[in-house]
Amino acid sequence: MAVKRTVKLEQLRNIGIMAHIDAGKTTTTERILFYTGKSYKIGEVHDGAATMDWMVQEQERGITITSAATTCAWGDTTINIIDTPGHVDFTVEVERSLRVLDGAVTVFDGVAGVEPQSETVWRQADKYGVPRICFVNKLDRTGASFEYSFNSIRERLTPDAVRAQLPIGLEDQLEGVIDLVEMRGIVWKGEDLGASFEYVEVPAELKDEAETYRAELMERVAESDEELTEYYLENGELTTEQLKDGLRRATINNQIVPVFCGSAFKNKGVQPLLDAVVDYLPSPLEVPPIKGTDPKSGNEIIREPADDQPFAALAFKVMTDPYVGTLTFARVYSGTLEAGSHVVNVTKDSKQRVGRILQMHANHREENVACMTGDIVALVGLKDTTTGDTITTPDSRVLLESMEFPDPVIEIA
Ligand code: GDP
């Protein structure tokens, strides 16, 4: 097929942002969309056709209720944010979205630390082996404590949590963060959206603390890999490059959960968090290939994440949209598909045609001629498709590993 790839698979991240309600998931997501987008403005409601309707609806209801996906770019990396609802009533939706993402950012309230729903979503992510990084948010709040929050993560969620940053200042004195991998400070000038930041030396009064925690991070990374262990034992330390690469591997392998911090609301820490998504969470090539079964023989089929494999995608959300009709959000696990192609819904054993392929951005929809391995797209034209269904080309059927998805379609007013 003559479909040309524009984004390298290594430079793709399919992530979710998970949190207890009110920890700041929406604020963090909005800031990410701001920093990765050019024209998106917080608080501005765009005209219907061009807007992601779910954002408007969510703003009205005040909680995150849907599980759509938004595509954005950070440097050379394309990031698909799969929206994981934070409200406890929607744990099935959380599970559904966890199924299709490759990594997650877990957001915590820097005053409250781990809260009951943080535990719920954490256990769900454990179930699917989703690699995670943590973001201790709201460090500008009175009573905020990075240490308290960090310890609650380590004690209540995972002993594998390790500090990757430390805050510089706290509460209304929050100035920035220390990056323990690169051993440098990142300090903001101002608190507004456009505020600039600069890299600085680690402040003298925090140097000892930073060195202690960097040593701990290094030890944990060294322990995660035989070659690194050997180097570490011989040299007493790792190089920064080894530390960074090792942390990436250990995070992807669920051996380490690095913890970052800041205040999304005060626009401090979100750009380094985006760097961390790129640096430490996996591309579709770095997660185990998806398994499925041959619908006729029941034999196991493994689909490698590659464009030259037969097309296979999993529908994870069906929405009706007043402008386009039914949107079927799907994760492409292998192969490519051009708009206008005939496909089969293997789960329902029905022939279908994909009329259009859309990608949702913060403030516009993009119509694509095709979708490729790793992509998260909205397919238009599928009938009788519900969440959890497998979509393939007619001559290469596979039933992808799926889970029970109870509720069917969300109507958007
Ligand atoms: P969600 O329920 O997890 O999506 O949380 P929201 O993003 O809606 O945030 C809940 C409340 O906390 C809102 O009033 C936000 O303005 C506020 N908030 C979010 N992030 C921060 C932060 O970094 N600092 C402070 N002080 N407030 C924040």
UniProtKB/TrEMBL annotation:
Top-level taxon of the source organism: Bacteria
Residue ranges the record marks as coiled coil: none
GO biological process: one example: ribosome disassembly
An example Gene Ontology CC term for this record: cytoplasm
Transmembrane segment boundaries: none
Role, per record: Catalyzes the GTP-dependent ribosomal translocation step during translation elongation. During this step, the ribosome changes from the pre-translocational (PRE) to the post-translocational (POST) state as the newly formed A-site-bound peptidyl-tRNA and P-site-bound deacylated tRNA move to the P and E sites, respectively. Catalyzes the coordinated movement of the two tRNA molecules, the mRNA and conformational changes in the ribosome.
Gene Ontology MF term list: GTP binding; GTPase activity; translation elongation factor activity
Name of the molecule in the record: Elongation factor G
Family assignment from sequence similarity: Belongs to the TRAFAC class translation factor GTPase superfamily. Classic translation factor GTPase family. EF-G/EF-2 subfamily.
Organism per entry: Egicoccus halophilus
The entry's keywords: Cytoplasm, Elongation factor, GTP-binding, Nucleotide-binding, Protein biosynthesis
Portion of the parent chain present: 1 to 413 of 706
Keyword Cytoplasm included in the entry's annotation: yes
